[in-house]
Amino acid sequence: MSQGSALLTLSAIDKSFDVHRVLDSVSFELANGEVHALLGENGAGKSTLMNILIGVYSADAGTLKLEGKLLKIAKPSDSARHGIGMVHQHFRLVNRLTLTENLLLAADGHPSLKSRSTARDTLLATAREIGFTLDPDCPVGELSVAEKQRAEICKVLALGARILILDEPTAVLTDSEASSMLGAIRRMAESGRSIILITHKLREVVGFSHRVTIMRRGETVAAGLDTGDLSIEKISSLMMGASTSSVSSDKPPGSVRPHGPDLLAISHLHAQRDDGAPALTDVSLRVRAGEILGLAGVGGNGQHELVETLCGIRSASAGSVMVDGADALGLSPRQRRKQGLRVIPADRMAAALVSELDIASNLALTSVVSGRFGWLWLNRRRMERDANASIEQHEIAGARPQGRMGLLSGGNAQKVLLAREIDSGMKLLLAHSPTRGLDIRAAAAVHQRLREAAAGGAACLLVSEDVEEIMALSDRICVISAGRITGELPGDANAADIGRLILGHE
Amino acid sequence: MSNVRLTLERRQRISTLRSTTTYTLGLLIGLACGLLVLLAAGAPASTLLNDLVIQVFFSAMGLAQTLTLAVPLILVGLSATAAMRLRFWNVGIEGQLWLGAIGATLVAINDVGSDSLRLPTMLIMSAIAGAAWIAVPLILKLKAGVNELVVTLLLSNVAYLLLQHLLFGAWKDPVNSFPVSPRYGDNEQLASLGFGNLHSGIYIALGITLLMAILVQKSRTGFYIDVIGHNRPTALATGIPVTATITLMILLSGALAGLAGGLIVTGVEHRLTQTIGINTTFSGIVIAFIARFNPLAVLPTAIVLAGIYNAGGTLKVFYGIPDAIVVLIQGIVLLTLLMIQFFRSYRVSLLRPSIKQPT
Description:
The complex is a heterodimer.
Chain A: E1 6-17, E2 20-31, E3 35-39, H1 46-53, E4 61-66, E5 69-70, H2 76-81, E6 84-87, H3 99-107, H4 116-130, H5 145-158, E7 163-167, H6 175-190, E8 194-198, H7 202-208, E9 211-216, E10 219-226, H8 232-240, E11 262-272, E12 278-288, E13 292-296, H9 303-311, E14 316-323, E15 326-327, H10 333-339, E16 341-344, H11 348-351, H12 359-369, H13 380-393, H14 410-421, E17 428-432, H15 440-455, E18 459-464, H16 467-473, E19 476-481, E20 484-490, H17 495-504
Parallel strand pairs in A: 3-8, 3-9, 6-7, 7-8, 13-18, 13-19, 16-17, 17-18
Antiparallel strand pairs in A: 1-2, 1-4, 4-5, 9-10, 11-12, 11-14, 14-15, 19-20
Helix pairs in contact in A: 3-4, 3-5, 4-5, 12-13, 12-14, 14-15
Chain B: E1 5-10, H1 16-40, H2 45-58, H3 60-84, H4 93-109, H5 118-144, H6 148-167, E2 192-195, E3 198-199, H7 201-218, H8 220-230, H9 232-237, H10 242-269, H11 280-290, H12 295-319, H13 323-345, E4 346-351
Antiparallel strand pairs in B: 1-4, 2-3
Helix pairs in contact in B: 1-13, 2-3, 2-12, 3-7, 3-10, 3-11, 3-12, 4-5, 4-6, 4-10, 4-11, 5-6, 5-10, 7-8, 7-12, 11-12, 12-13
């Protein structure tokens, strides 16, 4: 290893929220010029640790040292002053401002970044250095997710970060975009910066990091191991604990099933974005009973609008959608549910669950509409009994019927949603990025449920930006790019072919 | 190390006991601050307790007056609650109340229906008129996305001008030409309960509070209201009847405000006057907020607020304390209650740093 001595040392960090101890004497060491992968399941404490490092939270106990000197970080601006920057999964960008303006805003009067022209020059220079192309004068809101991410990285670097924390940087990218991003990460490290890479994708860890630190349940289970000495299996077992065998995401043998009639038939569908620009152009797809159709593509290519149009939240400008042979376009979301449509949207807390209400209510949401708990008065007891049964059947850890939805972890919240949506009336399941932000175990559980749904005779349309997920589940694969279907491949297509289609259409 | 830090932690679970004590404390702090304002405004400290508490809640006449004032306050509090639960800003309660009073008076002046059914007709008409007045911003909001805040607020002014137009014109009292309507007949007045000015409208207010509590907490519509109020996209996506629920509840909000107007004119004034609706929007929203949009909590809140108004009357008459001070006190109480919510949700603790120093 050519990396230098320890640049940043966190030792014996403790942190509790209320009565919950989320970090227990955690240590972490970052060397000069390295890519250091920080791994752990959801809720392992990675985000909390990083939030302490950037000054969002303060540690209850423990020390931070930068280049051997004790570091006091009481607020985010302290960490920025010491050259520590973080690129969050949810970008800290103001959509209505341009990237240059966003940088000026974040710089907050920093002496070297006061004028618009220096800010713009710094951005362009930073982008050139790490091999990004970006338009500093375009309002951020008009950028795609991948462009926003590049913009955010350049912004953080332009602010002078030499320690860069990247939270799931490839979660929203296609394979080829991801590898170019990972290449850029390596280049940043080679130019002397140190990178902390938080990721769930073990292949990235093995391929692109120098060292690995693994957290489990608020503790460090492996600190600063050389990546060269590790295999995916080894990392996976360290992350999940010794008792769990590594979860395979391969398709079970004999998964090719005889397929039934078309339960979803979309033909020549057109729809518009909120700003009136075309979002979907001449989209035709069909999904048969018992199959999973994977729709791959980079986020922001019309997937969101397609899902909304199918749900009945967005109106189509032309074309037709048939659910189980009956026209669906003229119907309300409620009528479409009656037809058998079930939906797992990309942002479950924004469009499918109510975080302020209790879990029983969330599980009952759709059956209250259909009258299961009474037409005039709600039978609360029955609702809780049903909820208890669901929680038990679907092994939703930490859930009580009276518990607040918002307090569940992402994986368990998704289980609640799946438990509600996959019911006896389901004919067509629309799942959009169903494992985004979930850890390996939770993602495997979601995949299992989707397979079971298809095996039970439902048609399943899986819209995902994660090509691995598409390949693991799909019987057929379609690719969407710039609002058009650019091709169809069999379920056993390889990643390179899919990637070519994803990028091949401009 | 000398620096002591304040830390904040979100409470994972909030017990009812903690909620209740926190709010009671907030109310007391607010009232204490209000007292300071009163003293600063020149109210004599020696008789303040007597005027503010004993006379208002513990003397027969005072209590009767407090309860009489509370009747319309309960209804406007429920009106604000119905709208706010759906995140609909009805800041035109005053306008709907005027329309309710006008509607009732219209029935009285034109002798609509049989004499024996006159009073119920008046009250029903007041509710319908209030609902009709809020239908305008409701339709604009649902059909054209127009912000209800501006429309409800401005329609209050329109309602007031309509009232003046009637009182200075067609409905002027022929007996003395004052700008008030002619006095209602006996069959057009709510029965007096023989306890001060208190009238049978209080039973109506209590009954409606109970019905509202059942609607919000036990019914299917109440469930829809919770979902729509917290997360409208989810409500739309899961097929909850969003438009129907909003329409029902907002019309109900207008109807309750209108009925408040109807109860004031039939129960207390026995004629339409120019002062009954003043400040009711503000009171309704204050009550709804303090009651945390819980209909059952609206009841005690409205009574306490009525007590403050009642005391305000005494202060004005005997010590020349202006109305504005009473409004100021209400504002202070509201602010302290809203601020105390922070301490309900978060634990604040002083932390001596335990960061181990390298030696």
